[in-house]
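can u pls check wat happens w/ iron/sulfur cluster
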Amino acid sequence: MTLLGSVPERLAKNHFDLDEDESHIEVHQAIAKATGTGKLLVAVCPAHVYSEEPDGTIRVEYAACLECGTCLAVATPGSLTWHYPRGGFGISYREG
Ligand code: SF4
């Protein structure tokens, strides 16, 4: 462990305000499956927001999003809609 603590310890200090009425992430399942983007999203997201169901559907736990933009950078056009959470919602960084 470093002087600053482990990455999970530092991330746990951040604050999330969850927008329970609206997800800021939507996976377009047919395109994600056809292009392999779904598996890519699962692999690249540092917060494990994406997971793959047995039938190949990509599940989204948007409450954990760190708003890093990595998924948007790797997704095939048309496979993902991502925008920042509405004002007042999302992550407030406390560490790192
Ligand atoms: S913005 Fe970052 S943390 Fe949020 S879903 Fe995309 S890859 Fe994961």
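The mean pLDDT is 94.
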